[in-house]
Automatic annotation (TrEMBL), chain B:
Example GO biological process: transmembrane transport
Signal peptide: 1-22
The family this protein is said to belong to: Belongs to the bacterial solute-binding protein 1 family.
Keywords of this entry: Signal, Transport
Entry annotated with the keyword DNA-binding: no
Pfam families reported for this sequence: SBP_bac_1
Highest taxon, organism lineage: Bacteria
Protein name: Sugar ABC transporter substrate-binding protein
SUPFAM superfamilies: Periplasmic binding protein-like II (SSF53850)
Keyword Signal found: yes
Length: 317, 423
């Protein structure tokens, strides 16, 4: 795969003395185009093979009654109408939206605070930046198991520590009520992913020219005013990126709830992807599961598009 | 991004399965004709390795074992079969045999099984699970029955006779309360309250031993609103409310309840044959084994374990049957017994298994009277940790409301699932 991609760059220079100016440009641009196509090709093939084609298949499956084993039959939009009328699925969607509405601002604020704290590039700041970032490289599943163990009643070290600090009762089961279970999951997710958002925001902050802030100071702007009227508007492209990432991640939440709460207590923490998983791989109804995936994908695309649009428009205004 | 990838992977799996359906017949299996492939859940690695080595050394046909993660075995086998990429033989958890048989992916071996000289000595519970519409689709392979484990040391310290385990529900509750009351960090009883599969294995024997059931015999009607189911759930609720259980029971979906008993702080736990091996190798708890009792005496057990089935797409069905026949015969069953796994040959138990440990008699007896609920929708009905059965346990044992109300709601949902599966 690498050989043809690596070869072409050399001849461009050789053509220089012979050809006239316009001719050289066409050859060069044509070669550049060809090179570009070649370089993009591996990614395009992967994208087609592992994303576009399965996506097309998923969409096709969603119009069938498609059990894991046995015959599949065309049912038109029946999977969609039953998904939209399915209480379990709607409850899962409702929970996912609530989770997203809590997780997104939480992650954003914490990430922004951390990014502002580690600004400056001193040795200590870089050290803390590394510390905050480390959990990002741990897998979500591993992190989920870790935190689940930490807060197990009677067994978990965090529970024991909480009791010593007088905050908790170590034998109390924190996964047994909706609020406490959600708080633990949110804490885990924050710990796990906030480092990446912090890093993105840091790079956004760094790209803001120092002169602008200096000018504002000279004009008598306070810290808050400078932040509100200089930093935030100039940070907008980064904000768009961070928020789209964050919302997409939260809407697709699965591992943390599957592992830490098993959807409990009383099925109150089942997310949309979790419900899709149950439909496909516990009830073995792949067609219905595919319809849910498609609905989720459409919703996600719509939300992301809306976010982009909103953030872009305010930027122009 | 990570989660986006997960979804992409999920989509890809589904997509790949589909594509393989489209390219029907092209997915031929490799390997020479003397080889048969076998899929087994990963935790049976060592025993399956031993058996395969033994078989391969004495047969021209060679068996090739593939380990599949236990938690996704059914899903992986299902998608592989749908994609014509399945094995020749599958070692299935017996409760899933009706589903796979009903979907036509297991080969009919009725004539072969009936021709076995020991056909009538195979574990009856296993045989009933591989029977679908009067035809037989596999053979029993390994046994795993649920029994009561109790901590003798804690029983003695609580003033109970360690040689007289409880034989009625009232005695179970009294013993649990006595143990829980005998020390600060002691618990009387532990179970996995958020695990559907665990409780069909360990809780339903209480129901059966009292004359009730969770499903009718052919798996078409749910009986979750029966008096016996309510009674068993009531026993658990009473024990929970009396403070005999550690708080983790409420949300444990498998691993932690067993760990709690292993740590030596819990009086009673219902579990299976393999838990005994764990406790023996730990060597930390002095435990006894007894049958799971009914309300006023009697006993019952969940007869679990594996069955071996030839898949309909098998490239070498004769070779596959050769392995099935060998696996149910004396040599292979002896290997199981030597590894403390419960054999499924009722005629050999007293000879090859029971003499190894006095406690094994309890397992052997339990297999003879073992029940297994028969359903083509077992996974959705009982094994789903967010399903009807797990939900019923949550509501009835840990909820505030009336147990009968929880039973009525669960009965309605369970019947709807069964009706949908049979229409």
């Amino acid at each position: 795969m690498t050989a043809p991609v690596m070869a072409p760059p050399a001849p461009g220079g050789v053509a220089l003395p012979r050809g006239g100016r316009p001719r050289r440009r066409t050859t060069l641009s044509r070669r550049r185009t060809r090179l570009g196509v070649l370089m993009v090709l591996p990614a395009a093939v992967l994208l087609g093979l592992f994303f576009l084609w399965p996506l097309a298949q998923t969409i096709r499956m969603s119009f069938y009654d498609w059990p894991m084993l046995g015959e599949h039959t065309w049912v038109g939009l029946a999977n969609y109408t039953s998904a939209l009328g399915d209480e379990d699925f709607l409850a899962a969607v409702g929970f996912t939206l609530r989770y997203t509405l809590i997780a997104t601002p939480l992650l954003f604020v914490v990430a922004l605070v951390l990014a502002l704290l580690v600004r400056g590039g001193s040795r200590a700041a870089r050290g803390f930046q590394t510390i905050f970032f480390i959990p990002v490289v741990i897998g979500m599943a591993a992190a989920s198991y870790l935190w689940m163990y930490l807060f197990q009643p009677d067994l978990g070290p965090a529970s024991a520590l909480g009791e010593r600090a007088g905050l908790l009762d170590a034998s109390e089961n924190l996964f047994a009520t909706f609020t406490s279970a959600l708080v633990i999951v949110l804490a885990m997710v924050t710990w796990k992913v906030v480092g990446l958002q912090m890093l993105l925001l840091s790079s956004g902050l760094q790209s803001i020219p120092v002169e602008v802030n200096e000018a504002a100071r000279i004009d008598g702007a306070g810290r808050w005013q400078a932040f509100r009227h200089i930093t935030l508007p100039l940070l907008r492209p980064t904000l768009a990126l961070v928020l789209v990432f964050s919302v997409a991640g939260s809407l697709l939440a699965f591992d943390q709830f599957f592992i830490m709460t098993s959807g409990g207590p009383n099925n109150s923490t089942i997310t949309a992807v979790y419900q899709t998983y149950r439909t496909s791989f516990i009830q073995f109804e792949l067609g219905a599961g595919a319809a849910m995936s498609v609905l989720l994908m459409v919703a996600l695309a719509a939300v992301s598009a809306l976010q982009m649009l909103l953030l872009r428009n305010t930027d122009n205004a | 991004m990570r989660r986006a990838w997960r979804t992409a992977a999920l989509v890809a799996v589904v997509g790949l399965a589909t594509s393989a359906c489209a390219t029907l017949g092209l997915g031929g299996r490799g390997g020479d004709e003397n080889t048969v492939t076998l899929w087994v859940r990963d935790y049976q690695k060592s025993i399956m390795g031993t058996l395969a080595a033994e078989f391969n050394a004495t047969h021209e046909t060679q068996v090739e074992v593939t380990l599949v993660p236990a938690t996704s075995f059914v899903q992986k086998l299902g998608t592989a079969v749908a994609a014509y990429q399945g094995p020749d033989i599958a070692s299935l958890d017996l409760v899933f045999a009706p589903y796979f048989a009903s979907q036509g992916v297991l080969a009919d071996v009725t004539d072969e099984v009936e021709a076995l000289p020991y056909a009538d000595d195979l574990s009856p519970a296993h045989v009933s699970q591989v029977t679908y519409e009067d035809r037989i689709y596999g053979v029993p392979f390994t046994g795993d029955v649920s029994v009561m484990f109790y901590n003798k040391t804690l029983f003695a310290e609580a003033g109970l006779d360690p040689e007289a385990p409880p034989t009625t529900w009232a005695e179970v509750q009294a013993a649990a309360e006595a143990v829980a009351g005998s020390g600060e960090d002691r618990s009387g009883f532990v179970f996995s309250g958020a695990c559907g599969g665990c409780n069909i294995f360990s809780l339903t024997p209480l129901v059966w031993a009292s004359g009730g059931d969770v499903l009718n015999a052919d798996g078409t009607e749910a009986l979750l609103d029966s008096e016996e189911v309510g009674g068993a759930l009531g026993l658990y609720r009473d024990m929970y409310q009396a403070g005999t259980m550690p708080e983790l029971v409420r949300t444990d979906n498998g691993p932690n309840a067993a760990t709690a008993f292993q740590s030596g702080t819990v009086g009673i736990r219902f579990d299976g044959t393999s838990f005994m091996s764990t406790l023996v190798s730990d060597g930390a708890v002095d435990f006894g084994v007894a049958p799971i009792p009914g309300q006023d005496g009697g006993s019952a057990s969940f007869a679990g374990g594996d069955v071996l089935s030839v898949m309909t797409g098998a490239a070498n069905p004769e070779g596959a049957w050769e392995f099935l026949e060998w696996a149910t015969d004396r040599d292979a069953q002896q290997v199981l017994a030597d590894n403390a796994i419960l054999p499924i040959r009722m005629d050999l138990l007293d000879e090859i298994y029971v003499p190894r440990d006095p406690r094994f008699q309890v397992f052997a007896d339990a297999l003879g009277v073992g029940y297994t609920p028969y359903s083509v929708v077992e996974n959705e009905l009982f094994n789903d940790n967010n399903g009807v059965w797990a939900g019923l346990i949550q509501d009835a044992v840990f909820g505030q409301g009336d147990i009968a109300d929880a039973q009525r709601a669960a009965q309605e949902d369970a019947q709807a699932i069964l009706d949908k599966a049979t229409d």
